[in-house]
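EI: anyone free to look at a 509-residue chain?
SC: sure, send it
EI:
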Amino acid sequence: MNKWIIALTVMLPTLIEIVDTSVVNVSLDSIRGSLSAGIEESTWTITSYLVSNAIIIPMTGWLSRIFGRKRYLIFSIALFTLSSFFCGTAWNLKSLIFFRILQGVGGGALQPISQSILLETFPRKQHGMAMAIFGVGIMFGPIIGPLLGGWITDNWSWHWIFFINIPIGILSILMVTFFITDPHYMRRMSMKIDYWGLVFLAVGLGCLQIVLDKGQTEDWFSSGFITSLALVSVVSLVLFLVVESTVDHPIVDLKTFRNISFSTGSLVMFFAFFNLFGSIVLLPVYLQTLMGYTSTLAGMVLGPGGIATLIAMPLAGRLVTRMNPKLLLGLGIITASYATHLMSLFNLTADFATVIWPRIVLGVGMGFLFIPLTTLTMSGIRKEEMANASGIYNLLRNLGGSFGVAFVTTMIARRAQFHQFRLVDGLTPFDARYQTAVEHASRMMEFSGVAPASSHGLGLGAIYGQLMRQAAVLSFNDAFFLLSCFLVCILPLVLLMKKGGGEVHVEAH
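SC: here you go
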């Protein structure tokens, strides 16, 4: 079977699944109004999908062995498509959340299965190009998702962000049926089900994802809800590790971590997506809340970075076979870190070129980071272990993004308070510069038609408002700077990775 047809077959459903992780975000207000739900309640439509998605991803290899990979892939696409229909026809918030859970269960397997099939289909010397194809979907989805969701919601209705999945899902099922064939080691086999591992994994990852998604809004561990979920998550995941190390047929085979390139690469990928998701969440918030950008203008800043990634990935896919991939990976890490450092220099006078350039540089850096990293991480994995390894790798990538978002949202809130208190120390009537600023602000108020008796108070308010904006900018600077530092710190890990590994044999499809 032609490898390009197989690539298109597995990437089509994967792309719509990744789009659905972010497409709801911009439609949340419309969904909330239509279903008469509160703001906090409506965010569960996002959290429920992420939770069920996170639980299924590491189970993918095990479920593929239980049911047969092709059969399980068709089932996953069918469940994702059917649940998309029911999401679009949801009659209240509870029903939407329930169908979003089913949608996450269906979509969770698509990323790791697609990656493992691509790595098996393409010969090892073309693994860079295979991962470029996979990376385009991984990087393109979070970019196009919000733009597509906003456009559909504005021009049609929020229901169509789900209905649009249906024809693509049906086409994907037909393509998988005709073009994908299971190799002998991925056909259905009977094995004892690891029930305890299944329970501990589901509870541990489910609680962890809720903690990361809701932690900042609940003020983290000052909330009994978050504290309880965190304890349950830690205990469940520890018990999961104990169980998986003792059973004959574990849900997640942790022996894969004995491969030093895989374990190191997974850690690097965690922090790479920690940086990527943290920065692309911060940037539009900074532009819209502090710089006065509209949603469209903020999207125009993010868009070119995504285009840069799409251009860089195929180039990196070609270069990775012609030079040491560790050099490309190091270049990608340094470039992405430098881009995030540039973002830490933003101020309230930054023009459009100043804010768009670091995003483009970050896009190039991530393109040159993702391809050699995935190639180095997965090339030493035997074909029989590919599905299990891909599930773990994709889980850590997604968790890196979730941890990154939780980190930056917390940093913005805490550091803004810190800088506000520090800057307020300078607002004293005995400071000549402060007195001059108050007089100037008062005169400006009077010039705009405010009565002299009120101008002084309004002038003080204007100065305090400016102080709040400056404190917010400094908090963004701190968050971007730390993201940059975290990425630089993983650079030495590249030295531990081996160039190449065990041959990944190609199975006829």
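EI: Residues 181 and 509 are 5 Å apart (CA to CA).
SC: 👍
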